Amino acid sequence: SKSRGRGISIENDLRVILEKLHADEKLVAQRYIEYPLLILQRKFDIRQWVLVTSINPLIVWRYSHYYLRFSSVEYSTQLGEGYKFAHLTNQSIQKKCDTYGSAIEGNMWSREQFHSHLVQQLGAEAGATAAAGIEEQINEIVSCTLRSVCDVVEPRTAAFELYGLDLMVDRAHRVWLLEANSSPDMSRSAAPLRRIVDEGLDDLVDVVLDLQQKRVPVAKLSAEREKRAGACWRLAYKGRAIEETELMRRRFRKKCGVDALTVTRALAAGTGGPPPAGAARGGEVSSRKGTGLGAKVLWN
């Protein structure tokens, strides 16, 4: 799909899905979340802003005030005419619906409104527990998502990047990653966004300047921000620096097909012979032939 929900379609016929994938190798097929959590009988997703101030070592900050984006019509499993208004929560799509904003102002809720809803529906203790569990899952998804790609992104000094992660919550309050977006929408089109955008951008500048101009250590800055009133960005992940040889090894593995078996076969093919000696099933093999990486690989 492209930005603003363009190119997204929902199919319930495997043959149609396979035909589309064969016709366009750039398409991505995702399993549909069959039992989404509904509010006012409507689907919603969560937009979570993420700030990356360093790739190597990976340093990720999560914005405290995520927000919810709703569909304009009630949820239905039917895929009839206008089904996108029930299934896809992208604002660019929803604004074309005649009932946009009729049930929920701007089709958006703040994080605080969501937490209040959980307490109202589940009770004070259970609602607070559910909200805390969702927050914990979001933080884990944020760190795992960036960790999975940090080794293929070229690091640049004195730079930062802002991402928008789209997440969905199911009926069991499990959180799922839908997609990650660069250059997320920062418009002030709805009431929940006006405060969030203004405070978020101001505080983002503070984080970047503290790190790059004042040279405040990450651990110290994180501790200070936990105590600072009005600080919106919280440290989500701080990794260790990865050596160049390790980066090369990881990139090679991903280019060859991600799994270690593919790498081992590539190494074996490079020598024109069988798998390296000692490559018993489940064993670990060290080899420098054909790659210059000194990579340790698994043979299954």
UniProtKB/TrEMBL annotation:
Alphabetical UniProt keywords: ATP-binding, Cytoplasm, Ligase, Nucleotide-binding
Residue numbers spanned by region Disordered: 269-288
GO CC terms, sorted: cytoplasm; microtubule cytoskeleton
Stretches that traverse the bilayer: none
InterPro entries documented for this protein: TTL/TTLL_fam, TTLL_monoglycylase
Record PROSITE patterns: TTL
Protein name: Tubulin--tyrosine ligase-like protein 9
Record lineage: Eukaryota, Haptista, Haptophyta, Prymnesiophyceae, Prymnesiales
